[in-house]
Amino acid sequence: MDTFKPSALLKNPHLQSILASTGPRKHWVKRQAKTLRETASQHILDCGDGIRLQGEYSTLPNNQQGLVILIHGWLGSNDSLYLLSAGSTLLAAGYNVFRLNLRDHGDSGHLNRELFNSTRITEVVNAVKAIQQQFPHTQNYLAGFSLGGNFSLRVAARAPANAITLNKVVAVCPVINPYKTNRNLNNGPFIYHQHFRNHWRQSLANKLQHFPEHGYQDILNKLPTLDAMNDYFVPHHTAYAEVDDYLNGYSIGGEHLSQLEIPCHILSSMDDPVIEAEDLQELPDHPQLTIELTRYGGHCGYIQGLTMDSWADQRILELFAESTSS
């Protein structure tokens, strides 16, 4: 497949990033995903130690290509536009699709008392294992976007030790260096900071409706920035005393992926305003890890033209099809 070549009107990285999850694409994707959503059944997954995660499984009678598990990005959900778009493309191509919600994402804030944080990898590993046990397939695939891409690669690294079978993993614009990503969200264009700050505040407020004993409402109202929110919530609601230690806790740079046994493919763009392309240099040179870097695409965008089709969806489909035929 040729590298991503958007129309001239869609080369702006911020427009690409925004269109991935909002704007005029919303109505087109929801029409496209009608079958995906109508065939979906909701499932609560037992992830051990009383932890439960939620997701939706979609299947069609003649779908024989295997199972694809999709993981959204931070503060997204199983109904994020990019997940609906990818999921509907895969379902139409003969794959069965499970769209997983991370803790506290989507409508799952009531399932677990403790708050989500990005270092909670064990429960995601256990969720993937539970999905495969509940919906056994010969061919199994995993794909994630942004923070979901980070989770997907960490799951891949832990898969053999946890009896998880994966034929291929694809990570679209994955978070590699959380410290730099956090800095970019705080210091970059205001629209990104505002988006994530507001959505995080909404998520935390929703959590209080289910678990008011956390009692942070008055404090939350006084935290104006993502940095200020991290400064409070990391020491009070994670196992880390310092924000930098927490951010390093879900980094995948250095040796974190050095023991990969599963083929992994990273799709990222040079103009991503959130994940810097130079972060890819922190990853190991490994035979099971392929990095595909495009000139354009923004952050999880890859919108090709005015039809609002996603090139990333077709690329994921192609990568999984190659694995199936090999």
Can you walk through the features of this model?
- InterPro entries: AB_hydrolase_1, AB_hydrolase_4_sf, AB_hydrolase_fold, ABHD4.
- It is a single chain.
- The chain has 326 residues and is α/β, with parallel strands linked by helices.
- It has a single domain, classed as Rossmann fold.
- Helices cover 39% and strands 15% of the residues.
- It is built from 12 helices and 8 strands.
- Helix 6 (147-158) links the parallel strand 5 and strand 6.
- The longest helix is centred in the middle third of the chain and has 21 residues, at 190-210.
- It starts with 12 loop residues before the first helix and ends with a helix.
- The model has no long low-confidence stretch (mean pLDDT 94).
Question: What are the key terms here?
Answer:
alpha/beta; globular; Rossmann fold; 326 residues; 12 helices; 39% helix; single chain
Q: Mind sketching the topology for me?
A:
Layout: H1 13-19, H2 25-32, H3 34-38, E1 40-46, E2 52-58, E3 67-71, H4 81-92, E4 96-101, H5 121-134, E5 140-145, H6 147-158, E6 168-172, H7 178-187, H8 190-210, H9 217-220, H10 226-237, H11 243-248, E7 264-269, E8 289-294, H12 311-325
Parallel strand pairs: 3-4, 3-5, 5-6, 6-7, 7-8
Antiparallel strand pairs: 1-2, 2-4
Helix pairs in contact: 2-4, 4-12, 5-6
Cross-sheet strand order for the largest sheet: 1-2-4-3-5-6-7-8
Radius of gyration: 19 Å
- Relevant CATH superfamily: Alpha/Beta hydrolase fold, catalytic domain
- The CATH class label is Alpha Beta
Overall average residue pLDDT: 94
As for the CATH topology, it is: Rossmann fold
Q: Which CATH architecture is right?
A: 3-Layer(aba) Sandwich
Overall, the morphology is globular
